[in-house]
Design brief:
Order of helices and strands: HHHEEHHHH
Strand content: 5-15%
Helix content: 55-70%
Strand order of the largest sheet: 1-2
Distance between the termini: 65 Å
Number of helices: 7
Shape: elongated
Structural class: mainly alpha
Radius of gyration: 22 Å
Number of strands: 2
């Protein structure tokens, strides 16, 4: 069954395969887990949950709490679990990544090397922080989720992030060296 909304519904099914959650819980889990490589906003989550419920792939239960707003918990149905398995078996649809840093560097001759250098340095700082987050997350998962059958798969995705950030850092160093050469050539021309 094809569900409207791109990959969002399948991401939601995958998250709900972990446990029943509210839309808020899902967004918090995204930020702590798949948010390093997949993002979903509340504006995508709630319409996605509504479509999944209408299709019978998830069910919604309402928890009533005195003095607090009702809490809507969503969980997978058998049909939803089957839909998730079917989607997981499909070939991957590769997408072209949008990268503002590369876009700006592509047109970088229109500004000084200092401006380009600042962009590259900001990227370096981001990926250095990411490496620290990945290392801490690995330790936390190995400590808190050691018996979870999903752990090896979670660690695989973290390892991808570690390799990716490491490669970007190496590229940043090469790019900074190239920007230094460009700046030296420009100074000699003046």
């Amino acid at each position: 069954m094809k569900i409207e909304g791109g990959a969002t519904p399948n991401a939601l099914l995958g998250l709900l395969s972990l446990r029943p959650m509210s839309g808020y819980d899902i967004r918090q889990l995204i930020q702590r887990s798949i948010g390093h490589f997949w993002s979903e906003s509340y504006g995508q989550i709630y319409p996605g949950l509504k479509r999944l419920a209408a299709a019978g792939l998830i069910e919604k239960k309402t928890e009533r709490n005195k003095g607090k707003p009702d809490r809507h918990l969503y969980s997978l149905t058998a049909q939803g679990r089957e839909q998730l398995r079917g989607w997981l078996k499909l070939p991957i649809a590769e997408e072209v990544a949008r990268n503002e840093l590369l876009l700006k560097l592509f047109f970088g001759s229109h500004v000084s090397p200092d401006i380009n250098r600042a962009h590259v340095l900001a990227s370096m700082e981001f990926h250095q922080r990411a490496l620290k987050v990945y290392a801490a997350t690995v330790k936390q998962l190995q400590r808190d989720e050691a018996d979870d059958p999903q752990l090896p798969y979670w660690l695989m995705t973290l390892n991808y992030g570690r390799h990716y950030s490491g490669a970007v850092l190496r590229w940043c160093k090469e790019t900074l060296a190239e920007l230094d050469k460009i700046e030296s050539r420009e100074k000699r021309r003046k």
